[in-house]
Amino acid sequence: MQVFDQETGGWELGTVLRVEKETGFGPHVAGQDPLAFVKRFDIDPLNRYMQAVSEVGANINNRTRHQRISLSLIKMIISEERTRSEDLRVDESLHGLSGQALAKCHKCLKTISKVVMCLEQHITTYIEYIGYLKDRSERLSGVLLALLTHEDAAASIGFAAASVELAAAAKRDGSSMKTIAVMTMVFLLANFPAALFAVPFLKWDWGSGKTVQDNFWVYWAFVLPTTAAVLLVWVSITCRAWIREKAAEVFKFQIARCNFVRL
């Protein structure tokens, strides 16, 4: 009993007191304002507190089970001693013992019953104590659960606010990209005629004869392949996942075809 009592005071009660001190929820000294201890908590410490308090509840249930088993044994010993006291002329054949051995057994049982009566009171008191401690840990667990729910809701609200800000920033970025696209389009409209008039393959002078020169094909021979190459690189980069998928399908089809031909 002393070992159980010391372990309960050192671990279960110590854990509950420590969590109550950290959270500010629990029995307070007269004159103290419980609301003065209320503060905001992080989710990680609350999870650790919740785990510790839950472990306290499990340990208390296990200790209660052991004490109830011990109490049942003690009650059985007391009941057996009372039965023997009421009838001292017990049939020896029922136990297979001689009268002298049965008398010694009854004497020992009587001595033990005097001790276990005191032990029964200790166990009953201990069960009441750990019952109170269990109720205290359950209430503290409810408080921790409420705090966890509150912090989770606050985190969800913060996440929603961050999402709104991100959407607003994305909208501003989209507007900026639209502005850049419009400005680029305006400058390209003026840039194309300027580049066209500046090409040396075209003669715009009045006295130069024909406007289009004989070597104008060189311009197209360079522009068209270059444009096609740029578009091909762009398509290969943007659609590389689709290209890999189609290539894998073709590869599997070729393997299946080769296997079929072998058969």
TrEMBL record:
Q: Which UniProt keywords apply?
A: Membrane, Transmembrane, Transmembrane helix
The UniProt transmembrane annotation reads 180-202, 217-237
Tell me the protein's name.
Uncharacterized protein
